[in-house]
Amino acid sequence: MKIYPIETGNFKLDGGAMFGVVPKSLWNRTNPADANNMIDMAARCLLIEDGQRLILIDTGMGNKQSDKFFGYYYQFGDHTLDKSLQQLGFNKEDITDVFLTHLHFDHCGGCAVWNKDKTGYETAFKNATFWTNENHWNWAINPNAREKASFLKENLMPMQESGQLQFLKPNATTFVTESELGFDILYVDGHTEKQMIPHIRYKGKTLVFMADLLPTVGHLPIPYVMGFDTRPLLTLSEKEVFLNTAADNNFHLILEHDAHHQICTVKHTEKGVRAAELFTFDSLFG
């Protein structure tokens, strides 16, 4: 098995929205805001090369939306999904599986592209199976008013219409559920219904792709919960249980949205679980 980070682009979001009720005087220490109160964000995905499978975890925003849409997110840098794949010697046709932690546009926007005639959308990965779970899929295609702007039909429906969509099944009796993709999955419901957090054994370490359970290192304190979460009190308990488990077992946490840190470990302190060490993929695995 080989694992690679896939940088799909950097963008900015409102710092207050990213930290909910936490005062700016606190979160600004770890995630400094610009003059418009915007903080740096990444759309970091993960590629797993495992035998005959090439698994992409999340896909970033994609590039099919309008200039007006992208104008809200102040994109910066030159990372794209295609460039990152090409730098590793791959292209979209090589991907066998696309695993989606959840279906918000910044995690699955790259799943679909305009068709050749620009009359509609089609899947971007012609040879891949797209993996979500049925509870989250139904939640996404019948969105509540709070998340409606994040669940975009043009991202979702091509997966179903192409026949490439498959559902994974959670196991309510275990902390993590085994999956046919070769890694375990933690299901969490605070951010959105049945978000999936992969746990991957790699070179003697447990790597956990954090998605929106822990967007950045700055979100480690338990009360530091995004304003986007649908059930923030549930996020509090989910984070507490997970972070204590991560500290006890020396998990290596891959940060999808931290523009400045790729991986961290955590430790127990008098103030709760906090960062222990910070790594890049290169520094950790060479």
Write down how many β-strands occur, each being a DSSP E stretch of 2 or more residues. 15
Mean pLDDT: 97
Order of SSEs:
EHHEEHHEHEEEHHEEEEEHEEEH
What fraction of residues sit in β-strands? 25-35%
Low-confidence stretches: none
Shape: globular
Placed side by side, the strands forming the largest sheet appear as: 9-10-11-12-13-14-15
What can you tell me about this protein's structure?
The chain is an alpha/beta fold and 286 residues long. The protein has 9 helices and 15 strands. It has helices at 15-19, 24-27, 67-71, 81-87, 105-108, 134-141, 153-161, 232-249, 281-285; strands at residues 2-14, 38-50, 53-57, 97-99, 112-114, 121-123, 129-133, 165-168, 177-178, 184-188, 195-202, 205-209, 252-254, 263-269, 272-279. Strands 9-10-11-12-13-14-15 form a 7-stranded mixed sheet. Strands 1-2-3-4-7-8 form a 6-stranded mixed sheet. Strands 5-6 form a two-stranded antiparallel sheet. Strand 12, helix 8 (232-249) and strand 13 form a beta-alpha-beta unit.
Secondary structure layout plus pairing:
Layout: E1 2-14, H1 15-19, H2 24-27, E2 38-50, E3 53-57, H3 67-71, H4 81-87, E4 97-99, H5 105-108, E5 112-114, E6 121-123, E7 129-133, H6 134-141, H7 153-161, E8 165-168, E9 177-178, E10 184-188, E11 195-202, E12 205-209, H8 232-249, E13 252-254, E14 263-269, E15 272-279, H9 281-285
Parallel strand pairs: 3-4, 4-7, 7-8, 12-13
Antiparallel strand pairs: 1-2, 2-3, 5-6, 9-10, 10-11, 11-12, 13-14, 14-15
